[in-house]
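Trying the structure run again after the queue cleared.
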Amino acid sequence: MFLCWCLSLVALIPLTTSTNPGVKVKLTAKGIEYGRQLAMASILQKLKTIKLDDVSGKERVSIGKVKYSLKNMNMVDVGLPTATLDLVPGTGPKLSIVNANFRLHGNWRVRYHFVRDSGSFNLNADDISFSTSLSIMTDPTGRPAVRSVDCGANVGKMSVRFRGGASWLYNLFKKSISRAIQNAMEKKICPLVANAVSDLNNNLKTLNVLAKVDKFAEIEYSMVASPAVSTTSIDLGLKGEFYNIGKHQEPPFSPAVFSLPPQINNMLYIGVSSFTFESAAFVYNTAGALSLDITDDMIPKSSPVRLNTQTFGFFIPQIAKRFPGMMMKLLLKMSKAPVITFEPNNATVQSFASMTAYAIQPNAALTPLFVLNLVSSVSARVFVSGMRLAGAVTLNKMDLTLGTSDVGDFQVSTLNSIFQTVLNFVVIPRMNVQLAKGYPLPTLGKMKLVNTQLLVLKDHVMIGTDVQFTG
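Done. Tokens:
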């Protein structure tokens, strides 16, 4: 399954080489080894199902022609002690198995003139080897598919032990049986290996090439360049871009080049660039999801700050005089998409918004009071939650300037404490609820990340993780 997941990423080859990736993936030698183990478990199960077709023939021996038939030949046991999965630079994976052994049981029947005899036999086949290269392609639906090519199989030593019947008779065709079974087995191995590889295609269809995040956004994980295959790793470049659902509008910025530092301790490394996060901000801002209506019932009851003309009138007296005893409402609206910056061990988000204050009239009509320009900076903590990348923010600083006023001039700085309360107790907690939900990482089937670590680096975050498949 893990090998299948990696190959599926390699197989997404509608490529646009002019675009830098927003997400990079590196499969290390440790991951390749895990993939080999899973691949071998799948192939082993397939080989255990081998049931050879009935074989019959004639053999001329010293006493004349002997007719024989072999029936009900089933696999009893399979051993695959030595298997390697090698990466061929510029090509792809190659699976090789040597020193395999099979144990087979069947029935024999022989006729020589008027003499008929029958019994059962056990066959041991040793020194079996086979290898196959894996070809990656895209199916008609645009999904990845894998097939086995250039497969070769060879059955080495064989020994047969007969049961029942006369030994002088079955010894006459013993060599013929061995050759017949050897040929039949060699013809069966490669189709079964190909079948095991083809079975992976059902799992490939679960790859979240276009993953829904929520009602506003989805993220695309298609390939943007051919995979770089070396002898120790596979490196992949994925688009890693957010889009509004049903509307793929490109943002007014492009992903910058970034590189994953050399790492080998985990099976898999995923680098997510600041472009991916900024494309998310662009999408949510375009959808209007970053706007927020703020009312007094959203302020904690323990806070001395209330959204009413009495509180604001303490700092702006003309509000209390013109609109006595009224509740107020604030509208927070982004003036442009937030800017996300990653530096080593530090992630910050700078947002640019307007805050419009209204007085709520007795008839529920809204009377505009003033508009403030709000520039804020928050520190971001990025973390992996299950199969999703999530986050949380805390306020660093906030700058207010007056945009327009319908209540005359006033000192904006006097409102700092009010709006810090609004940000800390209303806006940021709601942001963190959404950020904690996260967005999906590229996944396949019942995939689980373990031993996961995350580092904030220059222009990207890097996730180092091992992988387990539970089904």
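The two ends are 8 Å apart (CA to CA). Worth checking whether this holds up in the mutant runs.
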